[in-house]
């Protein structure tokens, strides 16, 4: 017969609550993307103008809104699967961690996209977030010096590596700039949110 101490029960409850909060935030983010696309479709693409407009002051607002806008449901579906999969791997660390990674990737990646995208272009879609989540997961273990996280990063490379590299190649209608700066922002997030830096803040 085995017994569970109160400390163990409390620890498991905290872990469950943390994972649950992260997954709820992920569901909310993806749900907002789908709701936005429903509204956009119903209004014949009226929301697409609120994406990132390169080097236009009014396009800066699009840094915050672009990840939630897509060019049709096909575009949205292609982003949803990797976003949910990679996002869930981050979400197990809690809502605060998922929010922090998402915020860093959205703002830094979006600003880089705004800065170097071709003139008179509007960038929309969550693929920058996908690249940011992926690069965060790939490098997080190296900054934290945790073997499990390093192994997870290797798995991410094996599963999505070729797609990530392909997304950096210039292609008509695809923002390699958004992919590139999303990936750079993910690396920055892994460094900023590393365990040693978080302990210093506390």
What does it look like?
This protein has helices at about 5-40, 60-65, 75-90, 95-115, 125-145, 145-165, 175-190, 195-200; strands at about 50-55, 120-125. With about 200 residues, it is mainly α. A two-stranded antiparallel sheet has the order 1-2. Helix 1 runs antiparallel to helix 3. The longest helix is centred in the N-terminal third of the chain and has 37 residues, at about 5-40. About 40% of the residues are buried. The model has no long low-confidence stretch (mean pLDDT about 90).
SS summary, helix count: 8
Distance between the termini: 40 Å
> What's the main sheet like?
2 strands, antiparallel
Q: What fraction, in percent, of the residue positions are helical?
A: over 70%
Which key phrases capture this entry?
202 residues; mainly alpha
Write the topology of this structure.
Elements: H1 6-42, E1 52-53, H2 62-65, H3 73-91, H4 95-116, E2 122-123, H5 127-144, H6 147-166, H7 176-192, H8 195-201
Antiparallel strand pairs: 1-2
Helix pairs in contact: 1-3, 1-4, 3-5, 4-5, 4-7, 5-6, 5-7
Compact description:
With about 200 residues, the protein is mainly alpha-helical. It is built from 8 helices and 2 strands; from the N terminus they run H-E-H-H-H-E-H-H-H-H.
